[in-house]
Fold NADH dehydrogenase [ubiquinone] 1 beta subcomplex subunit 10.
Amino acid sequence: MPEDHDWEAYKVPPTRTPVSERTTSVPNPVNSFQSAFSYVFDAPVTFVRELIERLQNKNKFYYYHQKFRRVPDLSECLEGDYLCYYEAEAQWRRDRMVDQEIVEIVRERMAACKQREGPNQFQNCAKEMELLAQVTKAYQDRYGDLGYHGNARTCLMKQKHRMMEERKAAEEKQQ
């Protein structure tokens, strides 16, 4: 459509709403009620809401994901400190869920690369394959063989046994 409209060609049709002809000097009670309602109820509520919105816009917080504070590891808890045990267990569960998601994301990237590259997947997806191997090995080292009911204590014991085996293997290698 052209920018400058020809108003003579496109005339606005006349409105069909009749013009009110006031024949009395008594005000309409509906208009009085509407204006009273507006001043008594609507105006204060609108004022308070706008005031709150202005204050909230000054201090705007952006929540991308929930951030938990890091709690001490189970090995750092004092004996008999059951609250510390509970917090360490909850932290371990969150860490396990994060690690599961990391493995899943890397696995999805690997599948996308294989789908995209087709027959050349072994050449072009070598970095993704190596990354997936590293991530799954790290996950298996930390959480493998714990089963569904694994917890922070059994994971800590597994890491302790693995460290002891590594020390023993290093000592045997030196002798």
Summary: The longest helix spans residues 82-117. The two ends are 91 Å apart (CA to CA).
